[in-house]
Known about the structure:
Blueprint: E1 34-37, H1 43-54, E2 58-61, H2 67-77
Parallel strand pairs: 1-2
Amino acid sequence: MSNWGKVKGSADVSGEINWVRRKTPPGQRLHDQVVVVSGASRGFGRAIALGAAEEGAHVVVNYHRSADKAEQVVASIK
Length: 78
């Protein structure tokens, strides 16, 4: 067995790892997480901001030019 890629003192893990995905109810996947969305006033950024809010995240709406559209997104989130 080669020692290539091993760190001295690391554990040797063999076999398969079984990952178990935690069941999270819809609307709670981002509960109490903070999401910063750049360009959240329109397009993909808007969709991401609204989707994150629907999943329970605290959303920071960032924009460059479209203040009115950004306010609309904030109003939709509230």
